[in-house]
Write a structure and sequence with these properties.
The protein has 642 residues and is of the alpha/beta class. It is built from 21 helices and 20 strands.
Length: 642
């Protein structure tokens, strides 16, 4: 399983109620199709070998015997497949009839799992035929098959099975299964359709996967079960830790294209979330009457087909982007609101560069001041042109401050920095790190001193991406009294400012225009002199690399702890057509080198609000020694070249 990816499927074959031979043949056909697509596990609907709606026919020996014959026939005819097949049938044991799922692999019946919760309400009357399974663990049948509550372990991953109603009850068997180590739950279901049930079913599967920190594969019966008073739609769902990966079309035609729903699960992602949560308890020796059933299997490495977003920090659903932006701005503003109120401060000082970060910091401060009922004139925006400032960025900073109704001050740093160079004996023509950082530190000194004069606080503008790369001048723009952007990556900053531009288009066209131009301006600290035609000469992404790549690397390294080699392969898929393999490798190596080397800056950053799941605050989410070696990570990345 390369990088922990495994392919699973939910298959809803054509069914003839009571016709076991036909149902077995259709099941075998879809199982073979799933296997040809490198599928590790395929699950079929509840009681699929006989049909769910057999009614009192379940009490007929002829049907029960035929179901067992069909099970063994299915196992024999799929013995050449290296795919786990999970099917449903009625099964008699000890004089009791159970609704069960049989787990089959390469001709062997690995185990049989009985349904534990039998519905007997509304349109359901299963207690008329089936017995709920209430025992613990597994027993061995006369045929030597494991029967009972079990987690199945093979080839490095653990899965379990529950049946339909088991999901809908307050305490699902899957709770015990995941506590026994199961990473994937397969559900054989025959859930009829009524108005509103599809959405409830989808939400239930989604939230169950989130609660369990697991993948959940839900297989529903199709049109063939529709008889008498019930209608079935074949509503198959595959979720992973709170996200729906795949959903079938309901009421689809009886054809093979609609019959199988695939998804590629990321087991390493599930494992990473469980490791991070110390309230998630697992006992691989078995929990609460669950036994572990082991068998041998070697599943193929797959090339994952699941889409990988280039911007994991940004909502993939653009229809949700506006509400997400409002939420983020609201959280940032709430943090600043609380800080200002706690210290009884009514003024804020912001260095306005005409770039994305300082613009977002101003937007957040506007929100906080409006919430506090404070005059926007108490927001002091300071533009501090230096040796690299262009008219474009300067004018934009002036325009947004005026349009928002803030107090604007312009203080040139050229003379003071020139004097500083004389004091330390630095040649003005040498445009090195001293040349750049002296300007950044002078600006910070101005902001701090004016905050003292005005009785205000300096609002930090640095973002999460800059913290990760260390792209900040130590004790320069690295420092503030409250950093509102500290957990906002550069890719998200751009979306937030763009959203504000769109939001203000009608109420303030001039502001909207200035914000839109800021979004289109190349990212730059503007510390080096501009070109002869007055344009920005120092473009950050030409030096440290594209922020969309760095944010991608950052997200998967910090959020899930993925290896650099896995992140590299994911980036190849996500950025196919945008960057070639060598470019991605180059900038990921740069990211790793800078991330480890710049931890000392992150160890002493100001307070700021946590907004997303990734944060680098040393007081909360990220504690790392400043002198840690990066060799393990760089060596892992090198393996992709082997």
């Amino acid at each position: 399983m390369l990088d922990g990816f495994i392919r699973v499927a939910a298959a809803s074959p054509k069914v003839r109620v009571g016709d076991v031979d036909y149902n077995v043949a259709e099941t075998i056909s879809l199982a073979r199709k799933a296997a040809s697509n490198d599928c590790a596990v395929v699950v079929f609907p509840e009681l699929g070998l006989t049909g769910y709606t057999c009614g009192d026919l379940f009490l007929q020996n002829a049907l029960l015997d035929k179901a067992i014959d069909g099970l063994y026939d299915l196992a024999d005819q799929t013995a050449d497949l290296n795919t786990v097949i999970i099917v449903g049938l009625p099964y008699e044991l000890g004089g009791k009839l159970y609704n069960v799922a049989a787990v089959i692999h390469q001709g062997d019946i690995i185990g049989i799992v009985p349904k534990q919760n039998i519905p007997n309400h509304s349109e359901f009357y299963e207690l008329r035929h089936f017995t709920p399974y209430e025992d613990e663990g597994v027993i061995m049948t006369d045929e030597g098959i494991c029967f009972g509550r079990a987690v199945f372990n093979c080839d490095g991953f653990n899965f379990a099975v529950e049946i339909c109603e088991d999901l809908w009850v307050a305490y699902s068997p899957s709770v015990d299964y995941v506590k026994s180590g199961a990473e994937v739950i397969f559900n054989l279901s025959c859930s009829d359709e009524i108005i509103g049930k599809a959405k409830f079913r989808k939400d239930l599967v989604k939230m169950q996967s989130a609660k369990l920190m697991a993948a959940y594969v839900y297989c529903d019966a199709g049109l063939g079960e529709s008889t008498q008073d019930l209608v079935f739609a074949g509503h198959n769902l595959i979720a992973e830790n709170g996200k729906i990966l795949a959903e079938s079309k309901r009421f689809a035609n009886d054809n093979d294209e609609d019959a199988i729903l695939y998804a590629d699960l990321d087991l390493e992602r599930i494992e990473a979330d469980r490791r991070r949560s110390n309230t998630f308890f697992t006992d691989n020796a078995g929990y609460n009457g669950v036994d572990i059933v082991e068998f041998d299997a070697e599943f193929p490495d797959i090339k994952p087909q699941r889409k990988v977003s280039r911007t994991p920090f940004v909502p993939s659903d653009k229809t949700d982007l506006a509400s997400r932006c409002e939420d983020i701005l609201g959280m940032q503003a709430a943090g600043l609101y609380t800080r200002l109120k706690a210290i009884n401060c009514q003024k804020a000082v912001i260095g306005l560069s005409g770039g994305l970060d300082s613009t977002l910091a101003l937007i957040v401060t506007i929100h906080a001041f409006d919430k506090l009922g404070l005059d926007r004139k108490n927001i002091i925006g300071i533009t501090m042109p230096g040796f690299g400032t262009t008219s474009r960025t300067k004018n934009n900073s002036i325009n947004i401050a005026e349009e928002y109704g803030c107090t604007l001050r312009e203080i040139s740093i050229s003379d003071s920095v020139t004097q500083h160079f004389k004091d330390i004996g630095h040649d003005m023509d040498v445009h090195d790190i001293t040349y750049e950082n002296s300007q950044a530190r002078e600006r910070t000194q101005i902001l701090m001193d004016i905050a003292n004069q005005e009785g205000g606080i300096v609002i930090g503008t640095g973002d999460l991406s800059e913290l990760a790369l260390g792209w900040a001048t130590y004790n320069g723009d690295h420092m503030s009294m409250y950093g509102v952007n500290c957990s906002i990556p550069k890719t998200l900053v751009r979306y937030l400012v763009s959203y504000e531009s769109q939001r203000t288009a009608e109420i303030s066209p001039a502001l909207s225009k200035a914000l839109a131009d800021i979004v289109d301006t190349p990212v730059s600290p503007e510390l080096l002199p501009p070109t002869e035609d007055g344009k920005i000469s120092q473009k950050t992404e030409e030096t440290v690399g594209p922020y969309e790549l760095h944010d991608f690397f950052l997200y998967y390294m910090i959020r899930y702890g993925f290896t650099p080699s896995k992140i590299y392969r994911m980036a190849l898929r996500a950025f196919d057509g945008a960057y070639d393999a060598d470019t991605i490798y180059k900038w990921e190596e740069t990211f790793l080198r800078r991330f480890f080397a710049q931890q000392f800056k992150r160890s002493c950053v100001p307070d700021g609000p946590k907004v997303g799941t990734v944060s680098l605050s040393p007081r909360g989410d990220w504690r790392m020694p400043s002198d840690a070696s990066r060799n393990v990570w760089l060596d892992d990345l090198k393996t992709v070249k082997d």
